Amino acid sequence: MGRSKLVFCVTLAALACGTLLLVLAAVPGWGAATGGRLLALAALCCMISAIGGVAVIAALRRDCNRLTARLRETSSPLQDRTVSLPKGGFAFLQRALSELADSAERAVADAAFRAKELEVQLKVATAERHHAEAIIYSISDAVLVTDAFDELVLANDAAARAFGFELGAVGRKPLDQILHDPAMIGLIRQTRRNDGESARRVTEHTIHTNTGDRTFKVTLSGVAGSAVDPGQSHGGVVAVLHDMTREKEVAEMKNDFVSMVSHELRTPLASIKAYVEMLIDGEARDSKAQREFYDVIQNEANRLGRLIDNILSIARIESGLVRVTRQPQSLTVIVKDAIEVIAPQAKQKQIALTERLTPVFYQTSADRDMLHQAVLNLLSNAVKYTPVGGSISAEVDVDEAARKVIVRIIDTGVGIPPKDLPFVFDKFYRAEANSRMASGTGLGLSLVKHIIETVHHGRMLLESQVGKGSTFGFELDLCE
Q1: Residues 81 and 166 in one domain
Q2: Are 378 and 410 in contact (CB under 8 A)?
C-alpha cells in the first residue's frame, strides 16, 4: 500500500502540474515559441499522470483481491467465536473498493483526454504559427513584429536585407541588439506606447546602405496587449516597410521630364513669336529681310516639330503602344538610304562620308522605318559634332558565329568626356563640354536606344575619346 500511495501522489502532482502549465500556456504574453513549449510540457505531465493512474488502479485491484482473500480465510474461525461481521459486510467492502477503482479509472481517462486535447491544441498552435510565418516570409515588403517588451519576435528576408541582420538571429531579442537604426527603433517604441492595438501610423523612413539611400513607406500597427488584462493597451507592433525608392526616382524623372520639355518647347516658340512680332511691326522693310525672318521661323517650327515627334515616339515606345511591323530587312540598304539623306549636310561642312557594307542578303527581322530613323539620328549626331574637314565612316559587319549584324558610325569629332559617357542616352542629356558646338534637344540618342533595345531587343555600342572622335553603333540578331 505504501508504494501505491506514492504512485498515487505522483499521479496527482503530474496532473496538477499539467493543469497549471495549460493555464500558463493560455497567456499570450509568453509568445508563440514559449507557449508551444508550455503546451508540450503540459501534455507530458498529463501523460505521466495517465500512466500513474493506470498503475494506481492496478495496485488498488491487487490490494482489493488480497484483502478479500484474507477475509475469506479468516471467516471460518470467526464463526466459532461470539464476534461476527455485520450482515453484508463483504459486499459493502467490495462495492467501496469497486467505486474507488471506478473513480480512479475515470480520473485516468480524464487525464488521458486532457493530454490528447493538449496535444491537439499544440498541433493546431504549431500549424497556425507556421501558417503565419509562411505568409510573412512570402511578403515582398519588409515585415518586423515586436512584442510588448520591444523584442523582435518575427521578421522576413526582406527585413533582414533592408536592415542588414541575419534572419537566424531573430528570436525574442531586444531591438537594440538587432536593428542598428535608432530612428526605426524610436518609431516602433512610440507606436507601442501611444494607443496599443488601435495605433496606426504611416510615415516615410530612409535607410542608409553601402549601395545608397533607400526610402521606405512604413506602416506601423499596434497589436493586442494581453488576454489576461483586456484593458492593457501596450502590446506589440507590426511594422511593414514598402520600398518606394524606385517610385520616388520615377516621380523625380517625370518632374524633370516635364521641366525639360517645357524649357525645350519654350525656346523655339519664343523665337517664332519674336520674329512674327517683328514682321507685324514692319521691321523687315525689304524682301531680303523678310526672307531671313521667314527662314528663321521655318527652322524653329521644324525644330519644334522634331522635338514633339521625338517626345511622342519615346512615349509610345515606353508605353508599349507603338505599332511595330517586323519584316526581314537588310541593314546595308537602310544605312545606304540614311547616308543619302545626310550627305548634303556633310557636304556643307566638307565632311568626307565613307561606307563599308556587307552584302544585302544578310537580313534582320525589324521595322524598317524605325531602324532608318535610328541610323539617321546617329549619322546626324556625328555630323553635328565633327569639325569642318573631318570624316565619318558607316560600317555594317556580320558575325555569323554569334548570328549578329553590327552597325557602326565612326566619326573624327570632338569626342565625349568619360564622365558623360554613362548618361549620353538619357532624355535631354547633353554633354556640357559640347553643348555649345551644336544645337539639339538631347532626345535623339535616347530615341535610338529605345528603338534598338526596347523595340528590337538589340544592344547599343559606344566608344569615345576626347579630341579623337566617337563610335556609335548597335547589334541585332540575324534572321534564321
Answers
A1: no
A2: no
Q: How many domains does the chain have?
A: 4
Q: Identify the domain boundary among 135, 151, 179.
A: 135
Q: Say yes or no: 212 and 281 in one domain.
A: no
Residues 148 and 113 occupy one common structural domain: no
Same domain, 108 and 195: no
Write out the three cell numbers for 258.
516635364
Residue range 155-190, pLDDT digits in tens: 888 888 888 888 776 777 888 888 888 888 888 888
Domain that holds residue 89: 2-135
Bridge partner list, 222: 237
Indicate if the pLDDT at residue 197 is higher than 50.
Answer: no
C-alpha angle 261/266/270, rounded to 5°?
165
pLDDT computed for residue 79 by the predictor: 46
Distance CA 168, CA 172 (A): 11
- Residue 178 and residue 148 in one domain: yes
Q: Are residues 112 and 147 in the same domain?
A: no
Domain termination site, one of 302, 319, 336: 319
From 420, 345, 353, select the one nearest 380 (Cα to Cα).
Answer: 345
Percentage, residues of the chain above pLDDT 70: 71
pTM of this structure: 0.48
- Shared domain for 331 and 463, answered yes or no, is yes
Cα separation values, 461 from 197, 338, 403, 451, 475, Å = 57, 19, 17, 14, 8
* Cβ atoms 389, 454 nearer than 8 A: no
CA dist 227 and 465 (Å) reads: 73
Cα 219 to Cα 203: distance, rounded to the nearest angstrom:
7
- Same structural domain for residues 358 and 466? yes
Phi, psi of 242 (to 5 degrees): -100, 120
Do 142 and 240 meet the contact criterion of CB atoms below 8 Å apart? yes
CATH of the domain at 205: 3.30.450.20
Q: How far apart are CA 476 and CA 231, in angstroms?
A: 69
Mean pLDDT value across residues 226-240:
61
Contact 420, 385 (CB under 8 A): no
Separation of alpha carbons 424 and 292, rounded Å = 34
Greater confidence, 476 or 61? 476
